[in-house]
Amino acid sequence: MQEVQIRECLMENYKNKEKEIYQILDKNFSPHFLKVKDVSYQHKNHSGFNAKETSHVEIEIKSDKLGKISRIEAHREINKALDGLWREGIHSIKINL
């Protein structure tokens, strides 16, 4: 129960796209640590930048499920889980395992 409350508290500071990513990864990998950060602002001088949209994301995730496979395979699994977001404006995802 306390873990759920902590996760909900952490998610209060997330924007909608960050929450969506968090929920997808939480559901698919049951991580014991998960942090999703919108870093789109770092690309504000790039062509097509829109400050109202999340386009670049950093993910830090620690999961027993991902820990049992190679780093490359873990990245593939995360990208597969987030596949639909690529069509919704996500341009870049940095993953730290």
CA-based shape: elongated
- Indicate the low-confidence ranges by residue numbers: none
What is the CA–CA distance across the termini? 26 Å
Largest sheet: 3 strands, mixed
Number of helices: 5
Q: What is the arithmetic mean of pLDDT?
A: 85
- Rounded to the nearest angstrom, the radius of gyration is 14 Å
Topology, number of strands: 3
- Determine the structural class based on helices, strands and strand pairing: alpha+beta
Describe the structure.
It contains 5 helices and 3 strands, in the order H-H-E-E-H-H-H-E. The protein has 97 residues and is an alpha+beta fold. The longest helix has 14 residues, at 16-29. 14% of the residues are buried.
List the helices and strands and how they pair.
Elements: H1 2-11, H2 16-29, E1 33-38, E2 56-62, H3 64-67, H4 71-81, H5 83-86, E3 92-96
Parallel strand pairs: 2-3
Antiparallel strand pairs: 1-2
Could you write a compact summary of the structure shown?
The protein contains five helices and three strands, in the order ααββαααβ. It has helices at residues 2-11, 16-29, 64-67, 71-81, 83-86, and strands spanning 33-38, 56-62, 92-96. It starts with a helix and ends with a strand.
Please name the defining characteristics of this protein:
5 helices; three-stranded mixed beta sheet; single chain; 97 residues; alpha+beta; 19% strand; elongated
